[in-house]
Amino acid sequence: MQTAFLNGTIFTGKEKLEGKALVIEDNRIKAIVENDLVEQNINKIDCKNLIISAGLIDLQIYGGGGYMFSDAPSRESLYGMADALVKSGTTGFYVTLATNSPDVFYRAIKVVKENPHPAVWGLHFEGPYLNAAKKGAHIKEYIKRAEKKEVEALLREADGVLKIMTLAPELCDPEIIRLLRDHGVVVSAGHSNATFEEAIEGYKNGVTTTTHLFNAMSSMHHRDTGLPGAAFLSDKAYASIIADGIHVDFNALKISKKMMGDRLFLITDAVAPVVNGKYIHVEKEDRFTLPDGTLSGSKLTMLKAVKNCVEHAGISLDEALRMASTYPAQVMNLPDRGKIEAGCKANLTIFSEDFQPQLTVINGEIKND
Fold first, then answer.
1. Can 269 be counted among the known catalytic residues?
2. Which one from 173, 269, 354, 369 is the annotated catalytic residue?
3. Do 21 and 109 belong to one domain?
């Protein structure tokens, strides 16, 4: 079946197009054509005064719609979270779990494997192989050094659904990084106290991205620029950033964008309220904290992060959209997502000029019309 989206402003990931029609067929993008060339007998959707973007992708998110997946991994929490994120304009995400017990990690794997959802693209384990000196909101008692046998067992159980792991490169043997990469896992440096030299060595050993730049990592000091400096000066490593003005000041976002260009991308790191258990997240007006006031997750959506980049960091809309779609797809080696061109997945985020989600299309299916 074909559907044409007419009269919208299309951001393809490369250019901005007006007065064109975007045609999808089944689960793929077919073409961008002149409006008067759209076949008469296909489904047409008027997107006047709306913006059409490649689907937004979140590589790090814990909860949504009132559901915190790691608090109680289940089909209900997975689908409740996923459906809420789709309504907010996110077309694909990686369910994230903080440092926890092996039992929680294994239960999460089981739930994701047994309950596929088109917007759930895999798991992101943020830990447990972190540096306790930069634990942030993570539970210290579960933080450990990586051992090969344990990692091998985890990868066997995951059987491909574990897609990202955040670890502290200064405390992780290169053999572990190679093992993860050999199993298709993207390795990210985070919750790390690495010196500049240690961080650069981590990138050389196969770490390809960096988790929530500035947060829970060595500081950028003029005598040791630490992990942020290494991310800035690397010619290949990416970094995610939480663009809420709270986790990272908007001026730091501006500086990071100038330094990293197309290697900086957006995540939400969003959580949901949790009142019991190991991880308690207290909801505030504009953030979440632990009971002791430690900053934990954000209240962002991907579309809100894009809006903040445009309105508070001087980043153009087309570039902010690339930070939320094209660059995350590149990090995850997904060449058919994060852009609008023939042959790519028909994943679209359609929103108003005031950044309100209107339609989300996943694999050619309109999810929230």
1. yes
2. 269
3. no
